[in-house]
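User: Design a sequence. Structure:
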């Protein structure tokens, strides 16, 4: 039972998808022009969250890891189609008001994030309550934004275009129409997040922080790091290991230059006479000595008078 309450508290307060983790900003900023639109989008997303967490947790052991993301998208797309037909049939005014943002629930990072981070790794009951907690937190954030933007920008409460529950007379209050426009969405969201941080600080909880991805921590400082496949904290390598790697790299010898085959053959042939045996080197000396001996022998020669003389 404690785990169920922990899942609800986690989705509503601790990890509120809009005010803490700032996920699903596209529908948050686009459809919160009125309280009805915010509640309608929040409840539609909550229904998809609960059903998708239930189905994905039920099939988590049968879905191959390599195709889990496409499988999650197929499941979510089927559920969104059902929700779209229900809204179109029973609440056509809300369906036309939300427009394209209903089909875009398929790629809402809140749904895919909870499927990847929790439902695909946990049992069915906790996954269902995780979807309920996240859905309630998302609906509450959209309802607050829609209420403030409608009240400040239009001077009405629960207006559907043709009628409204409360309307402030223009003699008392002149609506600030910029709050209904795109800049007003960012302004109101900033004030709501600031108020949420103040409440958390009062209760001893840390404020919402945007992770700095330029630090050595990298994805380890992100609150949604568990949603990324294979994400792991980036640890700084110790100084000793870095120094050892540098020393080993310095000891590596440079590669020896290779000698072409033709040049190596010529060098071997040129080096052969220097390596001949002593017997071969003595042969030319013996021949030189014999020639010198023959030159010293007397050779008879005849002069003009026919006498033999010796040189």
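Assistant: Done.
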């Amino acid at each position: 039972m404690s785990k169920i309450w922990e899942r609800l508290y986690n989705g509503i307060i601790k990890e509120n998808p809009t005010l803490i983790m700032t996920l699903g900003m596209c529908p948050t900023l686009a459809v919160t022009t009125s309280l009805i639109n915010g509640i309608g989008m929040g409840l539609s997303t909550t229904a998809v969250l609960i059903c998708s967490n239930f189905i994905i947790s039920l099939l988590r052991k049968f879905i191959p890891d390599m195709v889990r993301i496409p499988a999650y998208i197929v499941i979510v797309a089927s559920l969104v189609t059902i929700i779209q037909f229900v809204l179109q049939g029973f609440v056509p005014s809300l369906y036309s008001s939300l427009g394209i943002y209903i089909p875009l629930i398929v790629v809402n990072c809140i749904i895919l994030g909870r499927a990847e981070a929790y439902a695909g790794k946990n049992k069915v009951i906790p996954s269902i309550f995780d979807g309920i907690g996240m859905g309630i937190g998302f609906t509450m954030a959209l309802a607050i934004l829609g209420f403030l933007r409608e009240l400040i920008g239009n001077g009405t409460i629960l207006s559907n275009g043709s009628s409204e529950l409360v309307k402030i007379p223009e003699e008392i209050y002149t609506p600030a129409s910029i709050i209904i426009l795109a800049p007003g969405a960012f302004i109101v969201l900033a004030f709501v997040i600031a108020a949420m941080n103040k409440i958390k600080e009062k209760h001893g909880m840390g404020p919402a922080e945007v992770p700095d991805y330029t630090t050595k921590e990298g994805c380890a400082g992100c609150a949604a790091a568990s949603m990324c496949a294979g994400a792991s904290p980036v640890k700084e390598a110790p100084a000793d290991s870095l120094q050892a790697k540098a020393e080993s790299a310095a000891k590596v010898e440079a590669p020896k230059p290779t000698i072409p085959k033709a040049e190596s053959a010529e060098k071997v042939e040129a080096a052969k006479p220097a390596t001949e045996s002593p017997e071969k080197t003595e042969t030319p000396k013996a021949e030189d000595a014999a020639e010198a001996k023959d030159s010293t022998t007397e050779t008879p020669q005849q002069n003009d008078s026919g006498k033999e003389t010796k040189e």
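Residues 208-238 form one domain. Residues 229-237, 274-286, 292-311 have pLDDT under 50 and may be disordered.
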